[in-house]
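Encode chain A's predicted structure.
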Amino acid sequence: MSAEAQSMRVCRTCKNTLPRNSMYFYYRADSNSLRKDCRECTKRRNRKLKYKRDYGLEYEDYLAAKKAQGNQCLICSVEFNFQKIEATPHVDHCHTNGHVRGILCRNCNIGLGLFLDDPNRLAKAIEYLHNDIV
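Encoded structure for chain A:
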């Protein structure tokens, strides 16, 4: 087998033949073997598992919610874009009961979190922004 053939691997999920560096290594001291899925398929699988684990949300339901929102944030209407970190979609949920409220951009989701999801704090912040006192 040539060195070039040894440096290629077939992903078990997407079936693409990819360079060896497109696969993750197992993180064990006694192993330097490669995982069976490519990096992209691994990321996709982990994303699906995260939505189910963290929010009880099937990945298909997440995609449907994004589509129903026009692929944009419910607060600021920025179009979701994985190439811009501030425009990446994030699941917004109630920290008390776990209920998913919608999909927001990173900035809006973090903003709500920093205000502890408290409408009174947000109202005071809005009032503060409207004041021109220095």
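The first strand starts at residue 8 and ends at 10.
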